[in-house]
Design goal:
The protein is α/β, with parallel strands linked by helices. The chain is built from 16 helices and 17 strands.
Length: 456
């Protein structure tokens, strides 16, 4: 059983007092706080909704925290089964991953009068139109807790689905929320609007102050080593640069008999992003392009690993194909990508603890894993999601870390001529701006709570 730190213990009764969106920094122990709250205050069955790859970890933590718990059921797949729940039965935990809510098993979950529902990595339910979000809304529970360090990424509209789940009578209208807090414009002649970012953030902070709590590592006095971020330029040269420039100008290229056509602005950004990383991502054939060449960012990684042979490190790419083609060769025994079973993930983590090197796809690594054995993450290509960008960095900067941490982003730069920077630079700027906007909400909520003004 773990002893809670003072800042963790003070949150436990608050979780029991109200439905809450707990947005503490990653690594501050949201999981242990939720387990302790349900252990002390739950009066019936508890449902835990968490990513597939951390279900076993949740079950382990529950048993560690409450050795007397009679049943912890890790329900999986479409065939959800667990012991029948009866009135007066001791506390019972059921752990499912979000996708289960869409299956027929979701109907079984709806039939249970849950005493408490805890949703981990709750930002997965930001899409109000998604089937799993609607299924979550239909579950009955006396108490609800949503946990995520990144409650919104693009704009405040991302928060509404969670707020609606926590307090459906208070947060009724998505478009009412959107109009108040999302700065958008309507293109001429179009019936839709395009969001630019947030607005009225202090007003929004006041409206959510009763249902939202966020504490940073600095605020709770957690003495962690510093975290730094670095954008490292990597020269894109040779035939890779030639292809990038052709796509930039002509928006068309032919690779090994296969056409690459850029049809619109969104496709252009994605294709240029791929070209600066590894041109073989642009086509479906199995050959490596340029033939006989190693992508520039891979060359940089090889040199870095040679210079730091004993330093634990995590190498990450957004593209699974790139991970399996190039990164896996740098750490063949420790790879985590989407679609792996919990057993495979645990085996990869064991290899990571043994070798000190882990590679993986961004979506598979950025949530739920404790990777503080390493103090360095190297990202070969960026992501448009500030949620993923933040979550990834916090895999290493958490309780138990003793070394200064760094996240290195490899930013492609053309070797010569005009247009010196690739689209990587645009991605990094966009992420930095969005994360700064989200941080403003946290500051406003904190100011309001300290002033005692939580009225509507």
């Amino acid at each position: 059983m773990k002893t809670l730190l003072p800042f963790q213990a003070e949150m436990v009764p608050i979780l029991a007092d109200r439905n809450l969106l707990l947005a503490d920094d990653c690594g501050l122990g949201k999981t242990i706080q939720a387990i302790e709250a349900t252990k002390r205050y739950s009066e019936g069955p508890v449902l835990i909704v968490c990513p597939r790859n951390v279900k076993a970890w949740w079950a382990q933590e529950i048993r560690n925290q409450d050795a007397g718990v009679p049943d912890v059921c890790e329900a999986a797949g479409r065939g959800l089964h667990w012991t029948e729940m009866r009135p007066g039965k001791p506390l019972h935990y059921v752990i499912v991953h979000p996708e289960v809510l869409r299956y027929a098993a979701g109907e079984l979950l709806k039939a249970v009068p849950w005493d408490w529902i805890v949703v981990d990595e709750a930002h997965r339910f930001k899409n109000r139109k998604a089937a799993q979000t609607k299924a979550l809304w239909k579950l009955k529970s006396r108490r609800k807790t949503a946990m995520t360090a990144t409650p919104y990424g693009r704009h405040p509209g991302d928060m509404w689905a969670l707020l609606r789940w926590l307090y459906p009578k208070k947060f009724r209208s998505y478009w009412g929320w959107y109009e108040k807090y999302v700065d958008s414009y309507q293109p001429r002649g179009k019936r839709y609007s395009i969001p630019r970012g947030p607005k009225n953030l202090r007003r929004m902070a006041k409206e959510i102050s009763h249902v939202y709590r966020r504490r940073t590592k600095d605020e709770v006095g957690l003495d962690l080593p510093p975290m730094t971020y670095a954008d490292v330029p990597v020269m894109i040269d040779g035939r890779t640069e030639e292809l990038y420039r052709k796509l930039l100008v002509d928006m068309y290229a032919e690779i090994h008999g296969e056409e690459v056509i850029i049809e619109n602005a969104l496709t252009r950004v994605v294709r240029l992003h791929q070209a600066a990383l590894d041109p073989s991502l642009l086509v479906d054939t199995g050959f490596m392009f340029p033939i006989g060449e190693v992508p520039p960012k891979v060359r940089w990684l090889e040199e870095w690993l040679d210079d730091h042979p004993n330093e634990p490190v995590i190498l990450v790419s957004r593209y699974r194909k790139f991970v399996e083609r190039w990164l896996q060769g740098l750490a063949p025994s420790a790879t985590i990508v989407g679609g792996m079973s919990q057993r495979q993930v645990q085996a990869a983590l064991a290899a990571f603890y043994d070798t000190g090197r882990l590679v993986g796809s961004l979506a598979a690594i950025c949530e739920g894993l404790n990777l503080q054995m390493a103090a360095t993450i190297i990202v070969t290509d960026g992501t448009w999601s500030p949620v993923q960008a933040y979550q990834l960095s916090q895999r290493i900067h958490r309780i138990g870390q003793t070394q200064p941490c760094q996240v290195i982003h490899l930013v492609g730069k053309l070797a010569s001529g005009r247009q010196p920077w690739t689209v990587d630079r645009l991605v990094r700027r966009a992420i930095t701006r969005r994360m700064s906007e989200a941080a403003m909400v946290d500051e406003f909520v904190k100011d309001i709570l300290e002033g005692g003004d939580t009225s509507d």
